[in-house]
Protein 1
Amino acid sequence: MRGTSRASLQAAENRFAPVLRAAGGTARTIGDELFALVDALDGSGSLSRTLADPSLSPEAKSGLVTRLLDGADPRTVEIAQMLVGSRWSADADLAHAAERLGFLGLLSSAQSAGTLERVEAELFSITRALAGQREVRRYLLDDAYPAQARGELVERLLGQQSDPITLAVARRAAVAPRGRRYVTTLNHVGDVIAELRSMEVATVVAASPLTPTQTARLADLLGRALGRAVQVNVVVDPDVVGGLRVQSGPDVIDSTVLSRLADARRQLAG
């Protein structure tokens, strides 16, 4: 998102994040209703343009979205009214903002139940399990397959042992990919969880598993470098040969053998 949209989203989060936390288990209902708004915006270009149009009065857009969400939780309606009354750099940013708040609603529900860390671990396990499953990842992204079928596949893969919020997030990512890769959406949700837990997430790609001591030491080093607590998620990839590749948000630290060889080749070529 560009500056105006980023500011509008931040204002909405600042106002409603405490509301979602206070909603307890009912925050999930708010999240699901916001996803319904996202689906309506994605399904109708004219609706998206109208509700994001800065030339229309906030009152007119508020009335339209209120009718659209007839029967929804009043808190959902209030969030939607603020979103359509805000300014957006691009029409699509309105749906992106509603989606983020929808995920925040689901995760706030897990936080109130004390299961947020479990949801975080389960979502990361899904991304790790899909690392070598190219066909499954393609299926979960391909609009040629019905959304319902993609959702059912996720339910079969996860089974009944997963936390209900994990299943809800994973199913939503499959049913409504919104042009993103499946794992990208799960990683985005992981970032939202880290924000809720006031932690930074660092994904570490290593040639072999790290010991608990190594993981703790790396988390400590990264925490001191980034200035906040760090959750380290380790992905094992034998192709890196040796070393580590660490990514935290947009920042990447790559010290793998392959990276050093690539640097050497570039230097020789130069």
Note: Strands lie at 200-206, 230-236, 244-248, 251-254.
Protein 2
Amino acid sequence: MLKQIQGLHHVTSMARDARENNRFFTGTLGLRRVKKTVNFDAPDVYHLYYADEVGTPGTVMTYFPFPNIARGRPGAGEVGTTVFSVPRNALLYWEKRLSDASVQGLMRETSFGQDRLRFEGPDGDGFALVEVEDDARAPWTEGGVPAEDAIRGFHSASLRLRDGGATEELLKFMGYEEVDNSGNIKRLARKDGNGADVIDIETAPGAPIARLGAGSVHHIAFAVEDRAKQLEVRKALLDTGYQVTPVIDRDYFWAIYFRTPGGVLFEVATTEPGFDRDEDTAHLGEALKLPAQHAHLRPYLEQHLQPLEA
């Protein structure tokens, strides 16, 4: 069993409109944009990062906003719901805030004994807020949400699969343990993690296969401390039979990727070097930052990328 995994690092999704996406996460949800850069493989598309003050692993929601992309089709083989942690008694505040912002899909529910508020992102993204009494992570407090109600980071993510057995075994190999189950959902958790410690496996044998598009999660990333720990994880996965990419430099972390038995794309990302490697903390996410291989495109990109602020 691997001991290097610390919990979630980030969740990366697809969107249709960059400005709308930025407005939703920085305005409606009150997160901080900690990086404005571009997709390594499609540099004419933003890669936007939203998180706490410094982009702590376990708080980072990222997006590729592809203009005019079709909406995704929910189904099996993908991340179903991304769940954020908020303090106890915060849901009343959030229910009003999201309702006032005309956010769709609002629904109160109880899951594994915790009060939750489900809602949709601008592209139908599946989200929820869950009240967590003892989450000590510091929130971003300059996004218009009171500190006593603000998002602390991720609580969990659910994987919607036709058959969850092999993915459950993978997660257990990655250091997760089964802690509960409810109906067709099995809950696994990483003990002593970074706060973003929970993965729910939702088994839906009759679900159609998901189609990637706006509102879909592209991949989900797990955190390790550094490159040495990442190489240990990579070797262990290769030895187990998984096809794992070489280490890829993503400027703010190093990444490896592999496809799970259920079809979900997993990443293992390092905490180092962090989002302040090319901007000081006070100005994270303000300037357009480009990977070195795309630096020559700056004049074109600055003219053609959609301005995020109206």
Note: The first strand starts at residue 8 and ends at 15.
